[in-house]
């Protein structure tokens, strides 16, 4: 059995699809299973058991001998959430329990970290474990992810294989339920369909023109391919960046979305809300050398390729992966 926590969510449900496509059908999914996510994101997938998040550790105590691998993708991912108690509960302490169980039962583990751990990027975007304790995330979500990374690195007891994946700006199918936390591409598509135009945040940094703010956008199909690779690799434990490795502008993203829809670009700008202006990231780019060095050699989707596949293959017809 392969366990996927957060399986009803965006990346988790896409990973279940990727595993099914490779004929891994003994999948145990763990989540709090809101009706919308369960009915849509997990519909039609080959799953042998649904386990509620709160009952997972009792289930694992009774079934660990049959568990081959755990992907721990469940987390509170709302970057606007300010309650440290919620992040401590769901992102830090729950993850510690998953880690300790994997140590006890000798189960390999891949878990979701985040590029939010890098904060403003003053120390760069290198997945060098020696700088983990020096990073200064800009919000409680990033802090919770970095707190767990630091804790994991400090442990003497570790799963025989583990990897923490620092996801950059992931986009793709199955994020319909995420509301304001869905990708910019998802929101751009909906704005263009509704209004024929798109509004981006204006730059408040003199080093960047409006629309020239840059992020590392990574397609979810690449993310789950890396997860699949690591499930088989099971060597070289540690923290790994997971982005495309190429920063692109929001203007490029916008133009790619218009082009995928066959609509003439009409782009406007609005002030970045003051509530997030001081913590706004103007540049992120994953250094992907570490993952490449352990043998992952598959090319990543370019932004244009990923947006076209996402828009034309999924968003236009409201399809799921």
TrEMBL record:
<keyword id="KW-0521">NADP</keyword>
<feature type="binding site">
    <location>
        <position position="180"/>
    </location>
    <ligand>
        <name>substrate</name>
    </ligand>
</feature>
<feature type="binding site">
    <location>
        <position position="169"/>
    </location>
    <ligand>
        <name>substrate</name>
    </ligand>
</feature>
<feature type="binding site">
    <location>
        <position position="145"/>
    </location>
    <ligand>
        <name>NADP(+)</name>
    </ligand>
</feature>
<keyword id="KW-0119">Carbohydrate metabolism</keyword>
<comment type="subunit">
    <text>Homopentamer.</text>
</comment>
<comment type="function">
    <text>Catalyzes the interconversion between ADP-D-glycero-beta-D-manno-heptose and ADP-L-glycero-beta-D-manno-heptose via an epimerization at carbon 6 of the heptose.</text>
</comment>
<feature type="binding site">
    <location>
        <position position="215"/>
    </location>
    <ligand>
        <name>substrate</name>
    </ligand>
</feature>
<protein>
    <recommendedName>
        <fullName>ADP-L-glycero-D-manno-heptose-6-epimerase</fullName>
        <ecNumber>5.1.3.20</ecNumber>
    </recommendedName>
</protein>
<comment type="pathway">
    <text>Nucleotide-sugar biosynthesis; ADP-L-glycero-beta-D-manno-heptose biosynthesis; ADP-L-glycero-beta-D-manno-heptose from D-glycero-beta-D-manno-heptose 7-phosphate: step 4/4.</text>
</comment>
<dbReference type="InterPro" id="IPR011912">
    <property type="entry name" value="Heptose_epim"/>
</dbReference>
<feature type="binding site">
    <location>
        <begin position="31"/>
        <end position="32"/>
    </location>
    <ligand>
        <name>NADP(+)</name>
    </ligand>
</feature>
<feature type="binding site">
    <location>
        <begin position="201"/>
        <end position="204"/>
    </location>
    <ligand>
        <name>substrate</name>
    </ligand>
</feature>
<feature type="binding site">
    <location>
        <begin position="10"/>
        <end position="11"/>
    </location>
    <ligand>
        <name>NADP(+)</name>
    </ligand>
</feature>
<keyword id="KW-0413">Isomerase</keyword>
<feature type="binding site">
    <location>
        <position position="170"/>
    </location>
    <ligand>
        <name>NADP(+)</name>
    </ligand>
</feature>
<feature type="binding site">
    <location>
        <position position="187"/>
    </location>
    <ligand>
        <name>substrate</name>
    </ligand>
</feature>
<dbReference type="InterPro" id="IPR001509">
    <property type="entry name" value="Epimerase_deHydtase"/>
</dbReference>
<dbReference type="GO" id="GO:0008712">
    <property type="term" value="F:ADP-glyceromanno-heptose 6-epimerase activity"/>
</dbReference>
<feature type="active site" description="Proton acceptor">
    <location>
        <position position="178"/>
    </location>
</feature>
<dbReference type="Pfam" id="PF01370">
    <property type="entry name" value="Epimerase"/>
</dbReference>
<feature type="binding site">
    <location>
        <position position="38"/>
    </location>
    <ligand>
        <name>NADP(+)</name>
    </ligand>
</feature>
<feature type="binding site">
    <location>
        <position position="53"/>
    </location>
    <ligand>
        <name>NADP(+)</name>
    </ligand>
</feature>
<dbReference type="GO" id="GO:0050661">
    <property type="term" value="F:NADP binding"/>
</dbReference>
<feature type="domain" description="NAD-dependent epimerase/dehydratase">
    <location>
        <begin position="2"/>
        <end position="243"/>
    </location>
</feature>
<feature type="binding site">
    <location>
        <position position="280"/>
    </location>
    <ligand>
        <name>substrate</name>
    </ligand>
</feature>
<dbReference type="InterPro" id="IPR036291">
    <property type="entry name" value="NAD(P)-bd_dom_sf"/>
</dbReference>
<feature type="active site" description="Proton acceptor">
    <location>
        <position position="141"/>
    </location>
</feature>
<feature type="binding site">
    <location>
        <position position="178"/>
    </location>
    <ligand>
        <name>NADP(+)</name>
    </ligand>
</feature>
<dbReference type="GO" id="GO:0005975">
    <property type="term" value="P:carbohydrate metabolic process"/>
</dbReference>
<dbReference type="GO" id="GO:0097171">
    <property type="term" value="P:ADP-L-glycero-beta-D-manno-heptose biosynthetic process"/>
</dbReference>
<feature type="binding site">
    <location>
        <begin position="73"/>
        <end position="77"/>
    </location>
    <ligand>
        <name>NADP(+)</name>
    </ligand>
</feature>
<comment type="similarity">
    <text>Belongs to the NAD(P)-dependent epimerase/dehydratase family. HldD subfamily.</text>
</comment>
